Amino acid sequence: MILISTDKNSIVKIEKGELISYQKNGEELMHQKGNPGWRNSDTEMFPIIGPTEANNFSVVTPKGNYSQDQHGLLRELHYTAKNQTENSCTFIKKYTAYTAVENSKYPEKSSARLLSWPYNFSFKKSFELTNTSLKITFEVIAEKGMPFMLGYHPAFMLNGNLDELVKTETKEVTIPEIMEGGDTAYPVLNTSEISLLKKTGFNIKIKTRGFNNFMLWTPVKNMLCIEPITAYPYTGGEMLAKELFNISKESDIFKVELIPS
């Protein structure tokens, strides 16, 4: 699926709901599959963020304990395309409560073969490409009171020279510092905006609504994941404590805007 901005200077490519390319004036902004670092270019973390292995892949809910692997089961479901125009489109995933879902990490990377959640939910992902930005909206439609965490996990292309900076109003972080953070990722908390600053090419500002935190992660110098999250899970305390969860209002909206400049 291809989206084209009104001025024809921006092109977005989406494959089965995954943002695999965002080009501005011919410059690719997204990490490309097959390059070192990560096998994807974007994904979502839902209904939990973070690892569950320490708790034997179990997450506590008001309806009991249920099996979840790292970053939740949403990524094991498939998107269905709904609406498309020249510069916008929508995808949806639906889950029926208590349905067992095969874990693609089993058995090589996980001992949990089946994952499940005790709530029905629908998860909508919408893209809108304008002349100046790419807007991504997530809508969680679920039973009122359902606990959930949400993270968006896009990966951006770097030049490989380790000279980019990630900046907020109060903080600057280098790529080597992020790499040192390892698998627990580097937290940048209590902010809804963050920028990737480059020596050459487009900088990228990321504005969010509903997240208010970020994690930064990369094991390599050619890629960086800048991940809006509702809560940072690696707190050093109780794994996935209830304070980390949002509570569903039946319909909850989250927004991310990628702004090249």
TrEMBL record:
Taxon lineage: Bacteria, Pseudomonadati, Bacteroidota, Flavobacteriia, Flavobacteriales
Record carries keyword Calcium: yes
GO biological process, one term: carbohydrate metabolic process
Cofactor (UniProt): Ca(2+)
Assembly behavior: Monomer.
Keyword Transit peptide found: no
Protein name: Aldose 1-epimerase
Source species, domain of life: Bacteria
CDD domains (UniProt xref): Aldose_epim
GO MF terms, alphabetically ordered: carbohydrate binding; isomerase activity
Keywords: Calcium
